[in-house]
Amino acid sequence: MAAMAQRLAANEAEAIEATVSTMVRDGIMAGQISPALKDWAIATCRTDPAGFGEFLRVAPQIVKPAPFSSPRPPIKINDSGLSDNQIALCRNFNLPTSAFARNLQDS
Known about the structure:
about 0% strand, elongated
């Protein structure tokens, strides 16, 4: 019986965390919560999910909505086998690109 109660409690905790995560993510994606306030939103939602839901219902958009995982542009690899950023790094530190590429391959 104790094991079943522990599993039930664990399942309830997982369901609550999933709800909290979804509500906060939706608020951020809608621009109602700044990504910088994510930790506050999680703590508030855990404490009072209904109150947090009411907050999201009436909260205006305060930041430009952005997807959580925006696609990154592909990294361009040049003939040297280095990206543009790596070549710029070599230029800034006055390193030969061939030595930098060799060290990347060794690590």
